[in-house]
Amino acid sequence: MTPWVAFADDDDVWAPDKLRRQLDAIAAHGSAQWSCVGSVDIDVEGRVLWWADPPHDSDLSDELLRRNSIPGGGSGVLAATGLARAIGGFDESMSNLADWDFYLRLAQLAPIAAVHAPLLGYLVHADSMAHNIRRSDAEYHYMLKKYAQLREARQVMPDTVQWLLYLAGMAYNGGHRIVGARICLRLGLRHGHVRSLRSVGMAFVPTRVYRSRYRRGAAQIPVVWKKGVEEWLRPCTPTLQDEPLVNSR
């Protein structure tokens, strides 16, 4: 039996040194038994759309009861095989949030060693199962019930606003803009997240306007992250092979 197991969705991409850097991070930590990395969202042409740095705290036992803060969905984690077996593997009744559920249980038994670098390309496309909003929300409520006693014992409240923001973003990105608008309306009226009310109107603007807004968001990605991922993503992405790397100035 191999001592380590890593996970990757078939539409995501790893940096060549991802696993090596994770093993080094675990060794440097001393007591960690699993690791995650930084990720960037990419489109089907390999363009970098967004970024996500992993948590700096190595104890995520409370954090993952509150919200999912592990970047990259199911593709960024490496774990000790014995630890993965000890928690019973994935909950086979779940699909969209099975990775969050799995990481939550890992965190209850062991600290994590994060690598703060863009070592994962997470593909964003409308056909991914993550854009099944109804299924994701059903699994979220399943997790609320599943861990209700543990949250109560740890005195941790779920971050409902963060969850709905994520869900609204997935709805918009998956082309379900009316659904996204309803979620934003719920955020504003029921949860007091007034800024979400501005996003309601995005359901009714031309597609080019929405895409322009998304590109403006991509401009906020730190240059070092965008350049770092394009360097290793370039060989397997035809669109990037003929494009210059982002200006580092």
Task: Summarize the structure in words.
The chain is of the alpha+beta class and 249 residues long. It has a domain at 4-125 and 222-239: Spore Coat Polysaccharide Biosynthesis Protein SpsA, Chain A (Alpha-Beta Complex). It has 12 helices and 6 strands. The chain has helices at 18-29, 63-66, 81-86, 98-109, 133-146, 148-154, 160-173, 177-191, 197-200, 207-218, 223-233, 238-241; strands at 4-6, 13-14, 34-42, 48-52, 78-80, 112-123. Strands 1, 2, 3, 4, 5 and 6 form a 6-stranded mixed β-sheet that branches. A hairpin with a 5-residue loop joins β3 and β4. The longest helix has 15 residues, at 177-191. The N and C termini lie far apart (47 Å). The relative contact order is 0.15.
Helical amount: 40-55%
User: Uncertain regions: pLDDT < 50 for 5+ in a row?
Assistant: 240-249
> CA-to-CA gap between the ends?
47 Å
Which H/E pattern describes the elements?
EEHEEHEHHEHHHHHHHH
In short:
With 249 residues, the chain is α+β, with helices and mostly antiparallel strands. The protein has helices at 18-29, 63-66, 81-86, 98-109, 133-146, 148-154, 160-173, 177-191, 197-200, 207-218, 223-233, 238-241; strands spanning 4-6, 13-14, 34-42, 48-52, 78-80, 112-123. It has a domain at 4-125 and 222-239: Spore Coat Polysaccharide Biosynthesis Protein SpsA, Chain A (Alpha-Beta Complex), CATH 3.90.550.10.
